[in-house]
Structure prediction request, 323 residues.
Amino acid sequence: MKNKIALEEHFAIDLTIDQSKIYSLPEVWARLKANLLDIEQQRLERMDAGGTAFSILSLNSPGTQGIPNVKEAVDVARRANDVLAEHVTRHPTKLGGFAALPMQDPEAAARELERCIKKLGFHGFMVNGFSQVGNAETVVYYDAPQFNDFWSTANALGKPFYMHPRDPLPSREPIYDGFPWLTAATWAFTMETSIHALRLMSTGLFDRNPKLQMILGHLGECIPFNIWRIDNIMQKAPRGYPGKRTMGEYFRENVYVTTSGNFRTPSLLSTMLELSSDRILYAVDYPFESFEEAAQWFDHCEISENDRKKIGRENAQQLFSLS
Ligand code: MN
Prediction:
C-alpha cells in the first residue's frame, strides 16, 4: 500500500540519544544511534521504500520524562521541539511532530504544548509514561490532580496525545529483578503503559475532557484482549471504581491504537473485532523496527482493502486533519 501515514517514529537529539543505548545490542548501537539522530536522510528514503508518505515524529523514550531536574526537563523539551520543528518546516508534506513535554511541571508543559500546536504546527504530543520529578525515585502519573488544568488545555487544543512506553523503575517493580529479558519491549513496557492508560481512563479524564483522544501503540498494549474481562469483573466488584462509564466505553470512544512493533495478523484481527477498524492506525516504531518489515506485513495481511486504507491512512487523516 502506498501513501501510508506512520505515527510512532522516533528521533533523538544529542541530549537524549544515550537514553536509547540500553535498548540495543552493542554491535548494532552505532547504526541505531545514527538512525535516531538522522531525521531527513536515510529516514526519508526508508519511508519511501516502505510506502510511508508521512511520519509524525517523536522524541526517543523516556526523553524528557526521564529527566528529574525540572528546569532541565523544560529546556530539553523546548530544544527537542525546536529541532523537530526545523525539520518539519523543511519537509511539511513528509514529516509532522508530536511535542515532547516537561510533565514534571504541568504549567510549563501546558505552555509548551500551546507553543508546539499554535506556533510550530505540531499534531499533538507524546508522553513516555510517568515522569521523574526532583529526584530519580519520585514519580508522577498524569491522573494526579495537579494535571487537571494541563488536561483542560490539551482538550481545548483539540489534538490527540500518544501514551508511549518506558520501563518501570527497578525500585518500584522488583518482579523484574534478575529477569532483564522481561523488561523493555518484551513485556515491562506494555504492562507499565497499559496500567497508566487504565488509570487515566478510570479516573474521569475523559469525563472532564470528552473530546480528548489517547493513542496507544503496539495494538493497544494488551488492553483490547482484556477489556471485556476488565468490565465484567468491575461490574461484579467495583472496589471504589470512580469512572462514570465503563472502561470499555472510554476505550471505544477516547482511545486509538496503532500497529507499532506488533506486526501480527491474529492480534490485529482480534483488535479489529474489539475496537473496529475505525480506531486503528498504522505505525512502525522506527528505528527500533523497520519500515520495510512493517510494510511487508501490513500491505499483505488478510484484511479487506477498505480496512487497509482506513488503518493505513484515512483514520490518521481524519484524526489529525491532514489533507
Ligand atoms: Mn516506540
About this structure: The longest strand covers residues 4-11. Strands lie at 4-11, 52-59, 95-100, 124-127, 131-132, 139-140, 161-163, 214-216, 255-258, 280-281.
